[in-house]
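TL;DR need structure tokens for one chain.
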Amino acid sequence: MDEITDAADRRFAALPGRPGKVVAVHLSYASRADQRGRRPQHPSYFFKPSSSLAASGDTIERPAGTELLAFEGEIALVIGASARRVGPADAWDHVAWVTAANDFGLYDLRANDKGSNVRSKGGDGYTPIGPSLIDARAIDPDALRVRTWLNGEIAQDDTAAGMIFPLAQLVADLSQHFTLETGDVILTGTPAGSSVAQPGDVVEVEVDVPGGPSSGRLVTTVVQGSETFDAELGSLPAVDDLQRTEAWGSRQAAGLPAAGSPESGDLTNAGRSAADSPVSTRSPVLSDVLRAKLDVVPVAGLSAQLRKRGLNNVHIDGVRPLHPEAKLVGTARTLRFVPNREDLFASHGGGFNAQKRVFDAVGEGEVVVIEARGEAGSGTLGDILAIRAHARGAAGIVTDGGVRDAAAVAAVGIPVYSAGAHPAVLGRKHVPWDADVTIACGGTTVQPGDIIVGDADGVVVIPPGIAEEVVDAALAQEDEDAWIAERVAEGHPVDGLFPMDAEWRAKYNDREGDRA
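>> reply
TL;DR here they are.
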């Protein structure tokens, strides 16, 4: 009994006591968001058990049969005074101390945790914290810096000024949902540079104000565990190239072939160099500004600009909106169905299958895009999944298959494009196969992260790297077309005006000069 008590006391040695709650932020640094290719509009959270805490100098086990134990250096906030419904201006007054933390995660268990991170981040020793506390009242929170070393080499280096959501906002936001009590810990997210640690590796994290107070270095050594997971009790660890890429930070770091190479299995850009590609290989985040522009530009205008840039095969054909009056703008979250085969549906159609995983994980502002091979002879979603996507904040759903319970789906209110209504369930024609991969929908290729825009005319796919260029050109063309329409309404013939010849162009430019 004494040994158990001593071990427990050591875990919380850097804190005023055992915290009642440990709350962690999913994604909060701009550098990490840009690395992942998605930037949240609002913070989201998960809980970690206090039993996962560990002290500096402790070890962490990588379980037998797993490979992706990733470190995440973070700034940890320790609540000093209870906070309930406090505003951002007062929130920092409720933080007593700041220290370093390492939010370890086992990516082998991440997919089946569905964002809860209960198993992937809740293990014993998965939250080292300390070793010393910084007085929060004596520092500017934006000046805090977090650095992480892997075997003595710097891996992460960023400051709170680089966070999407300020530290005080996180405290205020959480306090509007529940009371933050004295001793509670908030893990505030990790910057770019998180990667995988192997048995024998030493990971160190330090939080400080440059030239000022420091938490000291939080030291954790990774060791190989011998215990395995029991398949009869729950799902087993599993990894794929997506989890490897996100755990290591990039395909290159994970030792995977570059995207687009024959070895990668993704031949979207195979045989094409960056120089002769009509689109950039860079994929910027769909910002609020860009989203606002896309909200006002008709799909027909975007289509014309994409054609000018050599992109003709960017239309999701054969789909019609349940809400023609609604505009659809978001980034693609892809789902692929294969033709039904009874044995494969038995193995892949039930349980927490690919279809359910996508609808349970779709993020705010994302569009679920479904490859159903144009087969409309069964539903590919119904009202329950539409409700789930709406509750998750999804921007919409596009499927080149059918929709079941079409009236109920329409009543949900989320923009949905489909090949039509059909009463049959999924298994009549389809097997839910995989997700977050390059798919074909309505005769065009869609990749995760592509920008999807729809209106009453249809749906187009915009490569993220040229989205700003395309939307700005489309806005300019819309303004020009409106001016031409006014001239036609005045009685001018379209010959020479649409498109404008030199004379009309000069008049238009003079008008532009007068406005300036």
